[in-house]
Hints:
The chain is mainly α. It contains 6 helices and 2 strands; from the N terminus they run αββααααα. 78% of the residues lie in helices and 4% in strands. The chain has a two-stranded antiparallel ribbon. The chain is globular.
Amino acid sequence: MExxxxxxxxxxxLALLTALEIVLSRFLSFSVWNVKIGFSxxxxxxxxxxxxxxxxxxxxxxxxxxxxxxxxIGPYFPGFTLTAFLMGAVLGLFLRREQNWWRIAAAVxxxxxxxxxxxxxxWIAVLYKSPFGALLPVRAAQSALLTAVQIPVIxxxxxxxxxxxxxxxx
Length: 170
């Protein structure tokens, strides 16, 4: 496995992807207290494809932390930052080398139905002292919708990166 090296160019690219994730997440997404729908996954997927799991995880975690501190939607909770890191790492593990439909679908399903549905729902239940089981149906619908959106969008982004990504990454 190729070890990721932070260079000035990679750090700059990851910083731009972090900023883009914050804008997409905090300003260009639909959000109510326990449901959030948007395209903030795209910059993290790009980081995953170009730089791998560690860089994508760090990018996602930093974006979550900075977004929560600079543009709070609710109280900051480190559990969401942990989940963001794990989601970026999962995308990087599945998408760094090859981006076919099966790998994209596997990464998205793990992120949406294990990390998003169960882990983030658990964090919401802990943070707001809400019953976990009562939150699941609405969050399951969100996960299903996001899965249906993320798979084709990530596939389209992967095709674009195959054409132009090497010029950007290195």
